[in-house]
Design brief:
single chain; about 290 residues; alpha/beta; Arc Repressor Mutant, subunit A; D-Maltodextrin-Binding Protein, domain 2; 3 domains; 10 helices
Length: about 290
Amino acid sequence: MARALPDISLRQLEYLVAVADAPTWSVAADRVGVSPSALSQGLGELERRIGVPLFRADGRRRVLRPAARPVLDHARQVVALTHDLVDWSDRIQTARSGRVRLGLVDVAAVEHYPEVLRRFRSDRPDVDLTLTVAPSAHLLDGLRSGVFDLIVCVDPPTWPGGVDVVPLRDEPIVVVAPAGTSFGDPSQWGPWVLFPGDSHTRFQIMARLSELGAPLDVAAESHQADVLRQMVELGLGWTALPESAAGTDLAVGPVLFDRRLVLARRAGSVSDPAADTLAEALRCHRAVQG
């Protein structure tokens, strides 16, 4: 006989997300509008109803156990989807036009899709469109927590549950060096100015350079492709960038690998016509551009 579902409240799941994201329990309690004792009681009841310990003692503090990750992931998804539903209901009741919160990696915003965004703004001036440019990891966290409705990011090695993904385009990552540079011997390449160490693209770059026998001396880092390009212009080192962001005033060398950009949104979310329209425009642009 199947086990009866525990009586878990949305409020308890909201408490769990707040504790995971806030620096202290006091801040978490303030964010959800309750006292620290009420927050503690609500989370204690959540533990009892799930039947799995979620926290461990760390001195006078309680911290999330690693084993609580599946519960936290579920809580994030449920809270984000509920916010989607409430926002949709609010727009229906107040007859407001749509709202789309879009997050993009910098190359998508600057190189690949600016015309799509300009056309969408022109065709749908009634829609409240907000744009955020950030690294892929930040965008994915924001999508899952409900900060974004759509994101365009680099395809990571693995995707978490609760996300629908559509491939948009593959783009070459090329070696970029000061003007006039020869690319003959990889053992003479570098030093490097690259994306930060937590970037999936950086991991791929380092792995490919290692395969080629190139030195892996990293002199500087930046999330922004245009900043890396400027560092190369200043003579601080070499870099590896999407071919579309390499520019024409530097030496562009061989392709290291192809990376994929994808469009992602929360699975099962209440459909917003404005977000659907923008998502379709991004997909169609992929078909036109190849």
